[in-house]
Hints:
By secondary structure, the chain is an alpha+beta fold. The chain has seven helices and 18 strands. It has a six-stranded antiparallel beta sheet. The radius of gyration is 25 Å and the shape is elongated.
Amino acid sequence: MASSRRRRTLANETIKLKVSEVRDSIARAQQKQAALLVIQGAESDIGTHVVLEKPVTIGRDPMVELPLQDEGISRRHCRVVPEEDVYFLEDLKSTNGTLLNGDKIDGRKLLNAGDRIYLGACVVKFTNSDALEVGYHTQMDALVGTDDLTGLIAKRRFDAAYVRALDAARSMRRPLVVMMLDLDGLKAINDAHGHPIGAHTIAEVGKIIGNIVSSQGAACRFGGDEFAAFLPGTDKTTGKLVGESIRAQVAGHKFEKDGVVVRPTISIGIAAFPDDGKSPDLLLRKADEALYRAKNTGRDRVNT
């Protein structure tokens, strides 16, 4: 009889524990979490999402927490500052001013859920929603901003970051390297082993490029088996060393899937700001021309 009571007591304690865990889980999901979400502006900026865990500066400077492309926005335009459970919007002496729900602000203004911040042609929405909703926006931002095959940032995000980085290099008078990279022999791999092996090869090369470049700049899959990268603050000599590191790792990597082993190589073209050009398009074209010289002189090499 005593044993039966102990079992019932343990069962009741287990039920209470489970109920408590569910209640805590619901409470965590219902916690409010503030964030900024770009809902209008340049295509590459729409969907950009920043959780407000610390002060966030918005502007055209690529180094701020929420960088935007619109030329009508100052480099450091405005800032959102959390203070305990409330959030304030401050204009940072921007050229065109900061509007909150259509009204120009002077000093700082308290933000409420659903408020809209107008900067040039860009609109940023302030949300103070439950953590599940904020998490959903964060996941969606990651999905639209990532190449599903390689895990590198999507080309549209790369393009925007590249323009901002070049703008910063120009204003700070610092160098910047641009790379165009293309796999050698992918068609032969597809023909011999099928497109799944080719796709696996592209994915693995993307990871190699990302691992080397991510700490210094950014890279994307430009299209098919071609990649692009930029390295702020890097001159052509150092950029060539980075390119050689990528080339060597691709050449030495074992690409294997479903028992099939392939050994592709990669050709790389490099251009540098300001020596080879000062506009985004010209630098990419110069890097592309260097890539074709690498292809035409034997492949599996870095050319400048």
